[in-house]
Every structure is written in structure tokens, then in C-alpha cells.
Amino acid sequence: MHITQLNQECLLHLFSFLDKNSRKNLAKTCHRLLEAFQDPLLWSLLNFHSPVELKKDNFLLGPALKHLSICWYSERVKVCNIEDWMKNSFQKDFCSRHENTVSDFLLDVCNRCPNLLSLTLSGCGHVTDDCILQLLKNCPNLKSLKLENCVRITDHTLEAVTLHGASLRTLHVDFCRNVTRAGLERVREKCPSVMLRAERSANMIPDSKPEKKLMPEKASRKLVQL
Predict the structure, then answer these.
(1) pLDDT tens digits, the chain, 226 residues: what are they?
(2) CATH number at 44-197
(3) Distances (CA, A) of 50 to 37, 102, 114, 123, 146
(4) SS3 (DSSP) at 45
(5) Do residues 172 and 143 touch, judged by C-beta distance below 8 A?
(6) Per DSSP, what are the bridge partners of residue 147?
(7) Cα torsion 78, 81, 87, 92: sign
(8) Paired residues of 48 in beta bridges
(9) Statement: the pTM of the whole predicted model exceeds 0.85
């Protein structure tokens, strides 16, 4: 039996074992496999490991998407997660090349994937509160929101969760240093059913020079010695 003689269910099962590039390459071989590639049921789960992958045409977005993950683990993440006011000209130029890549993609998800159940973002330093707000509004079934090392996320996102996250059950804001203890407590108060985790977030002092932090401490020690 030739692969093209398999029914749609079998073809989708076969495609499910392939990565996005392999699916695209297989779909180029004939119309029957292209039809399977374009089946929305194939695209209920999407994982990306770089913003560059978001610009490729080897996947489809649609109402069938339930689980989305964009996790960028790279040395470049450190550049993008420096506070904007601390970036030098080289760092600003580097970030400007892909500043809106993830945000624009997520806005597209807002418009085309209303049934999204889980979203994980890691190292996405350019994602803003407004972007998360739109997701919460347009994806009312979202149950899990995991944000890690997203420097622009603030208490505005936490407030959006209390207003529009009726279905949310899991919220992680690990290493999101610009959320505050007060914002976290507000979520705990207004959304007691949400499992909240904020490892190394609230009360972190971002990008402070060690000598500036230690100077008062050293001074106090000298006074004690006197």
C-alpha cells in the first residue's frame, strides 16, 4: 500500500511524529499529503525555540490550536531582557531587528486561535502587558499561562488576569522581575483557585550594580566598628 492510500486519520497520525520542517517537506511531494498537512486537526500543539521560527511557513494557525509554547533559550535572551534604559546602541540595534516578532505572532494567535488552552513564553523579552491582555480577552478558555524571564511583564498583566482570566488555573511569572509583591497578593486574593508561582520575581532589583547595593552595607559595618 502506498502512503497516499492511507485514510486521513492515519495520515494525521503519521504526520504527528514529524517536526514542522519535515511535515512541510513531506507535504510538497503530492496533493494528498498537502491536504493532510493543511488539516487543522494536525496543529493542536505548536512549540517554537526561536523567534525566527515564527516567520516560517511550515505550520498553520487556526481554531484547533490548544497548546502553544515559545521558549527562547539563547545567549541573545540576556540582551533582550536588559532594561531598555540600560541598553547600549549595539544592544538596541540588535533588539530592534525582532522586537515585534513574538508580539505580532501572539496578536495573530488572538485573532485565529480562540480555543487556546495553554501558553508558555520563556525568554520573550519584548512581550508586553498589552499583548497578554489581548490574549486573555480573545482566548477565554485559557487555563495555563506560564511566563518566564519576560522583562516587560508587570503588574498590569496580573491585573488583567484578575479581570479576564476566568478560566485560568495556572499562572507562572518566574523571573519576571518587574511584577511586585502587591500585584501577586492581589491575584491570590481575587483568584484563589489559580495556582500562582513567581520564583525570583517580586522584590528583585533589576540590573543594579553590585557596588551600589553594597556601599550602604559597607558603610553601616564601618559605623558598627567605630
Answers:
(1) 678 888 999 999 999 999 999 999 999 999 999 999 999 999 999 999 988 899 999 999 999 999 999 998 765 556 556 666 566 675 666 566 667 889 999 999 999 999 999 999 998 888 999 999 999 999 999 999 999 999 899 999 999 999 999 999 999 999 998 999 999 999 999 999 999 999 988 866 544 444 444 444 444 444 344 4
(2) 3.80.10.10
(3) 22, 9, 23, 10, 17
(4) strand
(5) no
(6) 121, 173
(7) positive
(8) 70
(9) no
How many of the other CB atoms lie within 10 Å of CB of 74?
12
> Residues 179, 202: contact at Cβ < 8 Å?
yes
Exposed, middle or buried by CB within 10 Å (0-12, 13-18, 19+), for 6?
A: middle
Supply the DSSP string of 114-127, one letter for each residue: TT--EEEEES-TT-
**First CA to last CA distance, the chain:** 90
Domain ranges of the chain: 1-42, 44-197
Distances (CA, A) of 144 to 85, 87, 101: 32, 32, 22
For 43, how many CA atoms within 13 A lie in the half-sphere containing its CB? 21
Q: Please name the residues in contact with 167: beta carbons below 8 A apart, sequence gap of 6 or more.
A: 140, 141, 142, 143
For residue 101, what is the enclosing H or E element? Answer: helix 101-112
Task: Provide the strand spans (E) within the chain.
Answer: 45-48, 67-71, 118-122, 144-148, 170-174, 195-197
Cell digits of residue 154: 508587570
Whole-number CA gyration radius for the chain: 22
